[in-house]
């Protein structure tokens, strides 16, 4: 092992990996150097690399405690060997720890969950660090359940303002629970985007993962609307009318037009007085959110003037702690207040959705989705600049459906600096998303173990994996899920090491099994009895066409047209046809009719032991178009496809109760015993 390889190992940077075909792949040396530089290591010369190795070795041998720890009751806590260690629980007192093997101590099984402090001493040296004691497993839903998976913005109703919103989500949850027995509804990330046009469509490239997009507000559900005078209500209704007219069209969704109307209505409602009770509730919300809300709202107010990329702002405004930012915050106090108020409304409407879902009989309710990262110029990176690695984007290595790899345009958390922060921003983000949730889907669940880092300017195929402290990241997730009593689902598709799935299963985190990807050792479709129990079973994902499109090879034709294939399209079609032939044979052997593949595939899912089954709303109505084609931006209308049927006619939520196809598709999973 040479010094560069040794330094990479010390920082958790992989120099080789196993690709999607299970073949070894080496990482280019230039990638390794660029990633180490982004992590703060000096690799300018052999001498600098040796010096960095010596520094890390000295730190490892002498540091009593890491900057922050996460551990589980009854399990081991890593501390420098020979130290005296004691834990201070959140309610006071002290718990001394006895050594349990070299360099580790075991927490008593009755250590209370929550935020503790660990103290260590060795000779004349002492150290203290925050310790989060997390539950050993995620909450269990307690039953088998099925639910719709919906891209909320595409699921419109006659009351929508051109995009599906939280009132629509409440209606979908209530109807699917009461009429169809659904146990949950899974939605796309609802994270905050740009505060003004142009608003990019991807829910997976947000400006903030902690806060929510006001595009999902229903203005008529704001209590001040009900109390408003007739003139103001009439003006709000006039703003809604042209937006609602677009709900009956199948053209690309227009977020800018929606926000122009909805934002204007909300600004009018913002000027209305609030009752004493409402004012007290708003004050309590602001007090709970504290500086994080102020920073986010300040970024929104500045972005309305200077654009949504803080890196192009005047230099004095790029530092959120600067005097110039403080002065602008005062000058723009009304806009800062407006954006804070919007988040309070979202908090109220999110609470209403989850409350309605549970009242309708859902044992889980809404499962929210957590994106992998954020926009490099957005609110989160502005507020927490040092916690993100610079000159790097997160992505994925080449795989069967994205053969050139993927770069997602998101800067990754800096693992060492995030640990030094005590994981505070990470935990706060999780807590916010889980506040009104029955579950959390972790997009690209490997993010708690490792991420594919791609240096700026390099192709996505020339990245490498960088490790994260997964016990700490996962422990923080389990603790916040425990606080919310929410199930955790990890999207563990693609290139995933076996040990990652084993850790998730040990910790009670559901995996994700998708019909098109589940294969037996011979490469054929995996029989239903062989599927995992602790998983969310689905036919497809939002990155693939619905069943109708898949059967027709729409994904191949699209990728061929866009130049995203790395082998002839004829080979892709041959492979697809062979795979579909195998599926039809398997379904027939199980007594299922492949003439209606959508219904047959969901009947297949119902025969698996999987605890959760997700039914895509697009599949249920016969939609053919995919929501997103990875590797593209404007070449395809990603995240702008409204829910439509097989003939391209728009389908509104109001139509679902009488839609015979919806009932036929869901009938097999509805019949499955709970």
Automatic annotation (TrEMBL):
Keywords: Carbohydrate metabolism, Glycosyltransferase, Transferase. It comes from Actinoallomurus oryzae. Residues 657-674 have a biased composition (Basic and acidic residues). Its EC number is 2.4.1.25. The keyword Transferase applies. Pfam families: Glyco_hydro_77. Residues 623-674 are annotated as: Disordered. This is 4-alpha-glucanotransferase. PANTHER family: 4-ALPHA-GLUCANOTRANSFERASE DPE1, CHLOROPLASTIC/AMYLOPLASTIC, 4-ALPHA-GLUCANOTRANSFERASE DPE1, CHLOROPLASTIC_AMYLOPLASTIC. It is an enzyme of class 2 (transferase). Belongs to the disproportionating enzyme family. Gene3D superfamilies: Glycosidases (3.20.20.80). It catalyses: Transfers a segment of a (1->4)-alpha-D-glucan to a new position in an acceptor, which may be glucose or a (1->4)-alpha-D-glucan. The keyword Transferase applies.
